[in-house]
Amino acid sequence: MNESLSLTDLIAELKGLVLDAVEKSAPEGGLADDEPLFGPDARLDLDSLDALQVSMAIQQRYGVRMPDSKETRRALTSIAHLAAHLSAGRS
Predict the structure, then answer these.
(1) CA separation (Å) from 91 to 16, 34, 80, 81, 88?
(2) Of 88 and 10, the one with more pLDDT
(3) Which residues form a coiled coil (predicted)?
(4) Residue ranges of the alpha helices (H) in 1-90?
(5) Quick one: which of 83, 91, 88 has its CA closest to 58?
(6) How many angstroms separate the CA atoms of 81 and 79, rounded?
(7) pLDDT score of 20 more than 90
(8) Model confidence over 38-50: pLDDT tens digits?
(9) How far is residue 24 CA from its own chain's centroid?
(10) 90 has a pLDDT exceeding 80
(11) In this structure, what are the phi and psi dihedrals at residue 46, rounded to the nearest 5 degrees?
(12) Are residues 10 and 86 in contact, defined by beta-carbon separation less than 8 angstroms?
């Protein structure tokens, strides 16, 4: 993973990566860093297949495996959580 990427840049990159992986456009007003990606409050209306696609895109882009686990579900709760998860993994 690119060590020089700031958290702000990582979040911006992840927004694009997630939207590309699930083949959706950003919701009206954009995707907030801490808005839910899954569940009843999620504007993207993602499902388990989308989670798999996002996990595969993360593995391909960053070389980080996201096995199906509680930790992965927590990481995918929002873009901010995902960025923190990936940042923690590179230190």
Answers:
(1) 23, 22, 17, 16, 6
(2) 10
(3) none
(4) 7-21, 48-62, 70-75, 79-89
(5) 83
(6) 5
(7) yes
(8) 999 999 999 989 9
(9) 13
(10) no
(11) -85, 155
(12) yes
Nearest-angstrom CA–CA distance, 24 and 66: 21
Is the Cα dihedral 59, 76, 15, 22 positive or negative?
A: positive
Tokens representing 73 are 């579900």
- How far apart CA 15 and CA 81 sit, in angstroms, is 12
Which amino acid belongs to residue 21?
A
* Cβ neighbours of residue 38 closer than 8 Å, sequence gap 6 or more: 46, 47, 50, 51, 76, 77
Provide CB contacts within 8 A for 62, sequence distance 6+: 1, 86
Instruction: State residue 3's pLDDT score.
Output: 57
Q: Which two tokens stand for residue 45?
A: 């209306």
pLDDT (0 to 100) of residue 65: 87
Six-digit token string for 11: 């979040």
